[in-house]
TrEMBL record:
Residues 4-204 form the N-acetyltransferase domain. It comes from the Bacteria. Gene3D superfamilies: 3.40.630.30. The keyword Transcription regulation does not apply. The lineage of its organism: Bacteria, Bacillati, Actinomycetota, Actinomycetes, Kitasatosporales. PANTHER family: O-GLCNACASE (PTHR13170), PROTEIN O-GLCNACASE (PTHR13170:SF16). InterPro entries: Acyl_CoA_acyltransferase (IPR016181), Glycosyl_Hydrolase_84 (IPR051822), GNAT_dom (IPR000182). The keyword Nucleotide-binding does not apply. It comes from Kitasatospora viridis. This is Acetyltransferase (GNAT) family protein. GO terms for molecular function: acyltransferase activity, transferring groups other than amino-acyl groups. Keywords: Transferase.
Length: 204
C-alpha cells in the first residue's frame, strides 16, 4: 500500500467524508450509535464546506480512499450567508427544524443546522477563517493531522485570511493537546457552552 497522501477533495469522496465525520463526532469518538440519521452531522459539519468552499477541502487518501479530512472557510461571515442562502435550502427538507424545544440528539443538531448564524461570535471576528479536521483513529498520532492542518493553513493564508479559529468540545482533551502543539491558543468567549474556542495565525 502506498503511504497516505493529501489531495483535494473530490465528489467521489462524499461517502467516506460522511463516514469519517460521524465516526469522530462524539468528542472525538464514534457517534453512529448516538444519532438516528447518519447524514445529519456531516450535513452540518462537513458537506457544506465541500459544497461552498471546495478549494479549501482536502482529504488524506490511503490509496483506497479518504481516511481523514480538513475543511474550512477563509471568511466565516460569507460562509454563514452562503450556508443560509445556498446550503440550508438543499438539506432542510431532510432535516426539518424541530417544533418546540429539541428533545433528542437529532433534534438538537437539526436546530443547529437551521441556525448558521451561531458561527458569528463577536470575539472571533479578528479570526475570520475557521476549520474542521477529522481523522479515523487508525491514522491519528502519526503526523497526518499536522500535515493536513498545515496544508489548510497555507491555503487559507493564500486566500487572504490572516487568522483562523475553531470550536472544539472541551471534553476532547486529546484534540486540545494536538491543537496546542499546532500553535493554537484559547480565545476567551463568554458562556461558550460545551465548546472551547482556539485560534492562531494562518502563517507562523
Amino acid at each position: 500500500m502506498p503511504a497516505p497522501a493529501i489531495r483535494r477533495y473530490r465528489p467521489e469522496d462524499r461517502d467516506a467524508v460522511f463516514d469519517i465525520c460521524t465516526r469522530t463526532a462524539e468528542a472525538g469518538g464514534d457517534a453512529r450509535g448516538v444519532y438516528r440519521d447518519q447524514e445529519l452531522l456531516p450535513n452540518i459539519f462537513a458537506a457544506p464546506y465541500t459544497a461552498l468552499e471546495p478549494d479549501l477541502a482536502f482529504v488524506l487518501d490511503d490509496g483506497a480512499g479518504a481516511v481523514g479530512y480538513v475543511l474550512g472557510t477563509s471568511d466565516t461571515a460569507r460562509f454563514v450567508r452562503d450556508f443560509r442562502a445556498r446550503w440550508l435550502p438543499a438539506v432542510a427538507d431532510r432535516h426539518p427544524l424541530p417544533a418546540g424545544e429539541p428533545g433528542t440528539p437529532d433534534e438538537v443538531m437539526a436546530a443547529l443546522l437551521h441556525r448558521p448564524e451561531r458561527l458569528l461570535v463577536p470575539e472571533l471576528a479578528s479570526y475570520p477563517a475557521h476549520l474542521h479536521i477529522d481523522l479515523l483513529p487508525a491514522y491519528q498520532g502519526r503526523g497526518h493531522g499536522r500535515a493536513l492542518l498545515s496544508t489548510l493553513l497555507a491555503a487559507l493564508a493564500q486566500a487572504g485570511a490572516p487568522r483562523v479559529h475553531l470550536g472544539m468540545v472541551t471534553a476532547n482533551t486529546a484534540a486540545r493537546a494536538f491543537y496546542d502543539r499546532m500553535g493554537f491558543h484559547e480565545i476567551p468567549v463568554p458562556d461558550p457552552g460545551v465548546l472551547t474556542y482556539l485560534g492562531r495565525p494562518t502563517l507562523q
